Q: What sequence folds into this?
């Protein structure tokens, strides 16, 4: 059993009396694809923002490669080897695709083109990011996150707003990355996508972990469907 | 057409480049409670926003009482008797409860008419009556949601659109809220509601639409939740 | 030699007079900021226009009251012209607040230059039909006009408070300032509200222009320094609320005038800028504002 | 002969405004910092250079002092202000401009207050040589900015402009980048200030003027944000358009205000109809 690359203990974060995340504890095993699912407002994106330093937790700790990274600033977290994308793709809209990628890592055009091919990005390096379709902006952001030297890739709803063809490609892309030994954790709503590629699924509800396990275990668990359909 | 208060025909809509709906068909009869459920990102809220012209409609049309209102500006829809309670307990936090209600009747002329309607509305939400002079930000989450609904009711709408009213509310408050929605419906207001808490919403619904990826996947009465397809829609596993 | 406490009393009185003027500027400015959500820096120049209109109308020997009414009317027209020709065009093109701020600075420069071109750069004084008696209240010397300033400011601010609290239009503006999206769902038309906010702002600017024009003399760039003082007062009190801004403006007037007890009078402006800078950096929400959420 | 001198005078002014516009472009156009305090650094540079030389230091110490002092103040100002967003950053930097004006007016011991500093020694006797030096400096600065914006540092500044949070998540200390951008931008403005002081050989507190702030912003926006050639063109257009006013025979009292009204009007029209400017592709955020 490979060890836990990322561990989160009793994370708490509330906004004006309402708990976004409460006593949230989970781990991500190295070399796996781990998905975080749960109904709207379950605290999935807040958990991502707490791990990557965008939000400071009120209580609890975050450990990465056995090092406590709680409270580090986002650029410090990135330098420890965590690379992430955002719920709404955040590309540098006035810069070309090439310049977007060069911020992550200096590389030759050949290498950059290879990074883009890896995510089936269908446009040249010179196109300005702002003029791309939403799907292509999403792929560019993922390619950029892959180029940044990292050991953990965090994707926040990678399939959101992406057409079904690209969605299938994303599945194969993530599987290839896993083959190369990458560890991936993603927030996702498309259940077909989650159930078909995840080694481990963590179910968040009302800011805390309801259950976790293999896709089959989670699908069978009555309380998960109940969380979605409500009491 | 008389049998339909609101008809949505082949609706395609989204936000800028992001498409969310891929052809929605829906007929809502006067006096019923219609509920839209479905997994996250299925486009539930976008349907509601399209009826109120709060997003970009690409194709299809919205017929209200036989009239095509797809392109009608927002404030004219209010005069037709449609009002909306947006998602997330949106209130005028720095105004008092009474002022929030008065703003609901902003387009109404005549002080007495506003007073009588305020009494009617407060009869549905009695605990707001004691808080009339309190600022809205001092209310609890549940009270804020009830204030947002009362503000919409001040327009005496024929069609009330509710966007996830139970979000962030405790189960007990949600039950109380749904009871109030039924009372309001009994007095003749048609309700179109988007809800994540599918079980509680379907318990009071006359017609249920289950949305998946911008299309209506399932339609039916209160028994629709028992349909085995629900599990696949919510937890995937269509067998690829 | 007046006793120490006498001098202190006089400084405080001067502070209240200055505070009253700054409050009128701050009220107009923060109303527009709250409702239309951008910094209308040319508000001071509109005030200066008011003063110069008053100068022109009174120099035609017309009676005092019609001169005041004409001045207010002309200033309101100027305010609406600015709102419609510049800001509305920018809003329709989805310009960001940064663009609106730069446009307001350009307007400020434009109006100041216009005043110099039309009225000339020399100092002007408004001829008062009746003389300006000096009263002695204990150790404090205060002129009739200065008393008028305080009374007019207090009355106008109370009327503004009543208008915002008790009338349908006032509540509509506060609702729009609070939550624009929800305001539109109840049928409030933002552009109409912006025009009304500008109208009220212009009336306040006109009255402030008249009062200052009578009490001090007129110079083309008077609007800029008054705008900075009114704006500093608004930031100190709270940009988020008109009452907060008014309180901050009175506070600034007093602190500035009492401050020159220790510092040479030339440093009155420096006190204001130091306060502005400190509040913008360390407490942008002002004394009364709620902590703004960072994200 | 007189017309030739007038052209040389215009040439020197143009070089100074190119220095100001291209340096402003670095912090506003390339890094997205709405810095309304740029003219404060121009003034600081002018005073620093004039005071150093008037106190007996050689000219090159004056220029170096102007650059370093303005640059240091720019960097220091960036530390507290770069936490602020959009409006508040603009207001704080504008506030800084007014503060510098007040200090210049009241610190009579150092700056002789409203009397200003007369008799500032010139770089060179004839204006031709000064024009050449100014042109070389302006083009050098333009070259430096052109190169910087193509380096990795320059690309990161543009990433900070487009999305600071995403830039942080790529391991970049955006706080340090913003300080460096403001510092360098101020340093170059300081040099422009030194040129101005030693050319006009008299400066007073009015150098900290909001009018000039709008003038340089017009030049920047007309040319286009984040466009180096745009800044050159913008400075030329805005400086030359009002010049004919001098010859139409308006009373001299009218020329000054007419000039200011004209470029304020041009800026408003550009903001409304062509916010991206001629060459620009970046909008204000």
A:
């Amino acid at each position: 059993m490979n060890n836990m690359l990322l561990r989160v203990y009793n994370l708490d974060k509330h906004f004006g009396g309402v708990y976004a995340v409460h006593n949230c504890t989970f781990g991500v095993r190295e070399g796996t694809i781990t998905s975080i699912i749960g109904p709207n407002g379950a605290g999935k994106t807040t958990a991502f923002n707490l791990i990557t330093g965008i939000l400071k937790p009120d209580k609890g700790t975050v450990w990465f490669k056995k090092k406590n990274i709680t409270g580090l600033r986002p650029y410090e977290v990135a330098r420890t080897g965590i690379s992430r994308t955002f719920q709404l793709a955040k590309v540098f809209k006035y810069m070309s695709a090439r310049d977007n990628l060069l911020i992550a890592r200096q590389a030759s055009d050949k290498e950059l083109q290879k990074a883009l091919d890896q995510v089936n990005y269908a446009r040249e390096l010179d196109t300005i990011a702002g003029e791309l379709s939403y799907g292509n902006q999403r792929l560019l952001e993922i390619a950029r996150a892959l180029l940044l030297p990292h050991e953990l890739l965090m994707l926040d709803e990678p399939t959101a707003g992406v057409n079904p063809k690209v969605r299938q490609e994303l599945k194969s892309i993530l599987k290839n990355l896993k083959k190369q030994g990458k560890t991936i954790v993603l927030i996702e709503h498309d259940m077909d996508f989650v159930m078909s590629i995840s080694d481990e699924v963590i179910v968040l509800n009302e800011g805390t972990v309801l259950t976790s396990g293999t896709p089959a275990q989670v699908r069978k668990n009555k309380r998960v469907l109940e969380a979605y359909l409500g009491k | 057409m008389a049998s339909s208060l609101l008809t949505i025909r082949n609706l395609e809509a989204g936000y800028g480049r992001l498409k969310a709906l891929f052809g929605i068909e829906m007929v809502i009869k006067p006096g019923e409670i219609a509920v839209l459920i479905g997994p996250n990102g299925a486009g539930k809220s976008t349907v509601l926003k399209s009826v109120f012209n709060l997003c970009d409609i690409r194709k299809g049309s919205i017929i209200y009482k036989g009239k095509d209102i797809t392109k009608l500006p927002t404030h004219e829809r209010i005069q037709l008797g449609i009002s909306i309670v947006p998602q997330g307990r949106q209130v005028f936090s720095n105004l008092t409860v009474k002022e929030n209600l008065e703003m609901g009747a902003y387009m109404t002329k005549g002080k007495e008419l506003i007073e009588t309607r305020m009494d009617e509305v407060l009869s549905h939400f009695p605990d707001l009556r004691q808080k009339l002079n309190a600022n809205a930000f001092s209310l609890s989450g549940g009270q804020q949601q009830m204030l947002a609904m009362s503000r919409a009711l001040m327009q005496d709408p024929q069609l009330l659109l509710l966007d996830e009213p139970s979000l962030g509310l405790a189960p007990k408050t949600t039950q109380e809220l749904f009871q109030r929605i039924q009372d309001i419906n009994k007095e003749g207001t048609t309700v179109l509601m988007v809800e994540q808490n599918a079980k509680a919403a379907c318990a009071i619904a006359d017609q249920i639409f289950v949305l998946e990826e911008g299309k209506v996947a399932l339609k039916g009465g209160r028994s629709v939740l028992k349909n085995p397809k629900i599990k696949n829609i919510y937890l995937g596993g269509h067998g690829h | 030699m007046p006793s120490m406490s006498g001098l202190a009393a006089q400084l405080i009185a001067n502070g209240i007079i200055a505070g009253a003027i700054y409050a009128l500027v701050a009220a107009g400015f923060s109303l527009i900021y709250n409702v239309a959500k951008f910094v209308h820096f040319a508000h001071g120049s509109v005030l200066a226009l008011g003063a110069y209109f008053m100068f022109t109308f009174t120099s035609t020997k017309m009676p005092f009251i019609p001169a005041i009414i004409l001045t207010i009317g002309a200033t309101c027209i100027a305010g609406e012209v600015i709102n419609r020709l510049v800001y509305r065009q920018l809003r329709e093109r989805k310009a960001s607040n940064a663009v609106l701020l730069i446009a307001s600075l350009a307007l400020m420069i434009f109006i100041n230059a216009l005043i110099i071109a039309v009225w000339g750069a020399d100092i002007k004084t408004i001829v008062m039909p009746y003389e300006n008696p000096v009263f002695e209240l204990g150790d404090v010397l205060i002129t009739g006009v200065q008393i008028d300033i305080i009374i007019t400011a207090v009355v106008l601010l109370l009327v503004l408070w009543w208008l915002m609290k008790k009338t349908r239009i006032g509540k509509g503006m506060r609702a729009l300032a609070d939550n624009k999206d929800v305001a539109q769902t109840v049928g409030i038309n933002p552009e109409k509200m912006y025009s009304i906010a500008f109208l009220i702002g212009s009336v306040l600017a006109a009255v402030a222009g008249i009062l200052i024009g009578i009490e001090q003399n007129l110079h083309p760039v008077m609007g800029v320094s008054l705008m900075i003082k009114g704006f500093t007062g608004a930031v100190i009190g709270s940009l988020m609320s008109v009452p907060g801004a008014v309180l901050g403006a009175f506070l600034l007037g007093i602190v500035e005038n009492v401050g020159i007890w220790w510092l040479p009078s030339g440093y009155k402006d420096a006190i204001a800028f130091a306060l502005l800078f400190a509040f913008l950096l360390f407490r942008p929400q002002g004394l009364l504002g709620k902590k703004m959420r960072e994200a | 002969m007189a017309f030739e001198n007038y052209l040389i005078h215009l040439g020197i002014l143009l070089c100074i405004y190119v220095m100001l516009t291209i340096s402003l472009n670095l912090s506003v156009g390339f890094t997205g910092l709405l810095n309304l305090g740029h003219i404060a650094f121009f003034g600081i540079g002018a005073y620093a250079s004039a005071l150093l030389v008037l106190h007996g230091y050689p000219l090159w110490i004056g220029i170096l002092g102007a650059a370093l002092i303005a640059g240091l103040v720019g960097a220091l100002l960036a530390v507290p202000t770069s936490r602020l967003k959009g409006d508040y950053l603009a207001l704080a930097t504008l506030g800084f401009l007014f503060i510098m004006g007040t200090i210049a007016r009241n610190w009579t011991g150092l700056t002789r207050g409203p009397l200003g500093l007369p008799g500032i020694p010139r770089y060179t006797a004839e204006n031709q040589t000064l024009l050449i030096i100014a042109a070389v400096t302006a083009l050098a600065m333009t070259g430096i900015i052109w190169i910087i914006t193509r380096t990795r540092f320059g690309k990161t500044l543009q990433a900070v402009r487009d999305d600071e949070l995403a830039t942080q998540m790529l391991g970049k200390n955006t706080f340090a980048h913003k300080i460096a951008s403001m510092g360098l931008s101020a340093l170059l403005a300081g040099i422009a200030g030194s040129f101005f002081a030693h050319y006009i050989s008299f400066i007073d507190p009015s150098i900290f003027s909001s009018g000039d702030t709008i003038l340089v912003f017009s030049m920047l926006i007309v040319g286009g944000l984040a466009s180096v050639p745009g800044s050159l063109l913008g400075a030329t257009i805005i400086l030359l358009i009002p010049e004919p006013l001098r010859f139409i025979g308006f009373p001299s009292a009218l020329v000054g205000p007419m000039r200011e009204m004209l470029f304020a009007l041009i800026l408003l029209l550009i903001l409304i109809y062509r916010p991206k400017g001629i060459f620009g592709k970046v909008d204000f955020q």
Q: What stands out?
A: Residues 2-209 of chain D form one domain. The mean pLDDT of chain D is 92. The longest helix of chain D spans residues 2-30. The interface with chain A takes residues 152, 155-156, 158-159, 161-163, 165-174, 226, 281-282 of chain D (CB under 8 Å).
